[in-house]
Amino acid sequence: MIMDIINVLRRSDLTHGLTDSEIEDLAKIFHSKHAKKGDVIIREGDPSSELYIISKGRVGVLIYSSSQPGEKEKITTLRDNDIFGEFSMIDGTSRSATVVTDEDSDFIYVDYLDFHRYLEENEHVGFFIMRNIAKILTAKLRMMNFEVRNAIL
């Protein structure tokens, strides 16, 4: 099982720039999870405490609709190697979206406290990972800007 986690981490943008030995050490704080189609992985508004990487599968990211109260709108689909829950690693606030599996899916995940403790003890690794999270968030923001621009213009 640890080898599966290591292999997912090696393919992930989260660990770009880390050595194999750093990835193998980091893998020790990650866990595996399987979910069936339709399972809610995280729920908008809930406390956040984990970052997820999709090992295999597909999930939908949903937010509450502002035009139809109580309804949710799918804003994107994430697939193999995509990351979600990264906001929680930065600010620890409640979930900004709901993530539901579109098919049976496998994930690896890490707890907020374990993650931050590890990064504090391994500052070099922490620098690379936080830089990578910034790049991931920037790419998502750029894509959102592009989609908003196309919707308006």
Number of strands: 8
Measured between the Cα atoms of the first and last residue, the distance is 48 Å
What structural category characterises the helix and strand content? Answer: alpha+beta
Pattern of helices and strands:
HHEEEEEEHEEHH
Radius of gyration: 16 Å
Q: Give the number of helices.
A: 5
- Strand percentage lies at 25-35%
Shape from CA axes? globular
Strand order of the largest sheet: 1-8-3-6
The largest β sheet comes out as: 4 strands, antiparallel
Low-confidence stretches: none
What level of helicity do the residues show?
Answer: 40-55%
In round numbers, the mean pLDDT is 91
Fold topology:
Layout: H1 2-11, H2 20-26, E1 30-35, E2 40-42, E3 50-56, E4 58-64, E5 72-79, E6 83-84, H3 86-91, E7 98-101, E8 105-111, H4 112-121, H5 123-152
Antiparallel strand pairs: 1-8, 2-7, 3-6, 3-8, 4-5, 4-7
Helix pairs in contact: 4-5
